[in-house]
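Exercise 7. Given the components listed, write out the predicted structure of the assembled complex. Treat all entries as one system.
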Amino acid sequence: AQSVAQPEDQVNVAEGNPLTVKCTYSVSGNPYLFWYVQYPNRGLQFLLKYITGDNLVKGSYGFEAEFNKSQTSFHLKKPSALVSDSALYFCAVRDPVSGYSTLTFGKGTMLLVSP
Amino acid sequence: NAGVMQNPRHLVRRRGQEARLRCSPMKGHSHVYWYRQLPEEGLKFMVYLQKENIIDESGMPKERFSAEFPKEGPSILRIQQVVRGDSAAYFCASSPPGTGVLYEQYFGPGTRLTVT
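Answer.
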């Protein structure tokens, strides 16, 4: 079975500082990994994905994520946080070997960026 | 190109009533997914449908819940005899036809169901 863990319920960072939102996963094969962001009372917006290739993936709004197979991690990063980045962030995994076409989500991490 | 549409955005039902949630996928998308988000929790997969077919319903409760995606019209998630525990945000997502595993899913704004 595939699973995702986001160990931090909340991450606090000052505007202009770098941010990291952590994600680890468990799948039986090579994972497909995704990050989504959710603003209050809105649906999820796609940020970026890792399918294959370079371990560093660049996505929307200046976000990037690094795939680390040995640590089974896919941490989301941004060099300089903005107050407008404050939102709920979800990591998700899909395991193509298992035949699942669906996404398994982590519980989410609330990012709060202070001015 | 309109995104994924869901209606209603908010739905209030009394215990025992039926709830019908609608989802229109993005234009050109033929894969539809339904997820439920309970307070303080992440999204939980419920069901995956293609036109006229249920592909994976492993996340659906065994009773009272059903889903369809007819040849014409939106996908419908139906909850019969709702209970307070059904109160949640229900999200629909869609993805293009073909190799679905490679594509990200595009989410609608959700329907927030409140059972009183």
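Discussion: Chain B touches chain A through 27 residues (CB under 8 Å). The CA atoms of residues 33 and 77 of chain B lie 10 Å apart.
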